[in-house]
Each structure stands twice: as structure tokens, then as C-alpha cells.
Write a structure and sequence with these properties.
- This protein has a two-stranded antiparallel ribbon.
- About 5% of the residues have low confidence.
- Strand 1 and strand 2 form a beta hairpin.
- It contains five helices and four strands.
Length: 154
């Protein structure tokens, strides 16, 4: 018989679980009295599933914009994406893609969110810059940075 089809009832919550996943579910079942009790880091409610927070609202406060370390959700500084697109065009500087964009930290230091360090790239060219294909686009990126500095000095 196929393990994915055959189901067994959890002794704690009575949920029907495939035999393949039964052991893991039983260990982590929120009604299992032996499992480690986890609490939402935002509101301190007991977590009833395998999540970091108890709700969308708490998740946004915990992981929200500007919240680097997940403490109380206060947006103390703008995200690097906001900084990048406030100073630079909203398109990939290599191919002009404008729908799905990434922001590359030129010096590879993710703490350095100065506009001259942030480069708008599409996902493909962002992957290039972190691979052996970097040499194919690095000249255009360096030219972009030079133009940015020239514009700032004028």
C-alpha cells in the first residue's frame, strides 16, 4: 500500500496524517504535552502551529520593513530598496527590465545602504554578479556608479 495514501489518526489532535509524516506530526503536534511550548515573539501567545508568529499582524511587526532583527516592528530607517529606488531608476541598469527587480550591494556589505552602494538589477543580472558571469556585466555597473557620482558632484 502507498504510504502517502494510507493515513493514521494523531493520538493528540485526531487529525488524519499520512503514515510517512505521522512521526514528525506527533512530535510537533500542538496538543502534545511533551513538545516544547513556543510563544509568539510579538504578543507572547502560545503558537499552535510550526510558525514563527501567531498571525499576519504579528508576522508583519516581527519581519516588517526596516526591522532588521525582529524587535517590536518599529520602522526606524528606510529599507535598502526604498533608498535605492529613491535615488536610482526603477529598472535594471543592464537590460531595462522594470517588473521584477533586485537591489545589489556593490561592496557586498548588506549594512551599507548608501545610494552609491545600491545597484538596481533584474534577478538574472543579480545572479550574474554573484557568479562566474560577473565579468559580463561588471563594466556596465561600474559605469553606472561613475555616472551616479558625476551627477552627485554637479
Amino acid at each position: 500500500m502507498n504510504k502517502n495514501i494510507e493515513k493514521k489518526e494523531c493520538i493528540f489532535c485526531s487529525k488524519k496524517i499520512s503514515i510517512q509524516n505521522y512521526r514528525i506530526h506527533k512530535e510537533k503536534c500542538f496538543l502534545n504535552p511533551e513538545r516544547e511550548i513556543l510563544y509568539c515573539p510579538v504578543c507572547n501567545k502560545v503558537l499552535t502551529s510550526k510558525t514563527t508568529t501567531c498571525s499576519r499582524k504579528c508576522r508583519y511587526k516581527y519581519f516588517g520593513p526596516g526591522n532588521k532583527n525582529g524587535i517590536n516592528g518599529i520602522d526606524t530607517e528606510p529599507s535598502y530598496r526604498k533608498v535605492c529606488f529613491s535615488y536610482h531608476p526603477h529598472y535594471c541598469i543592464i537590460c531595462n527590465e522594470n517588473k521584477i527587480l533586485a537591489v545589489h550591494h556593490f561592496d557586498e556589505n548588506t549594512e551599507n545602504n548608501n545610494p552609491e552602494n545600491l545597484i538596481p538589477l533584474c534577478l538574472t543580472h543579480h545572479a550574474y554578479i554573484h557568479s562566474k558571469y560577473k565579468k559580463l556585466i561588471i563594466n556596465k555597473i561600474e559605469l553606472f556608479i561613475l555616472k551616479y557620482f558625476k551627477y552627485m558632484w554637479e
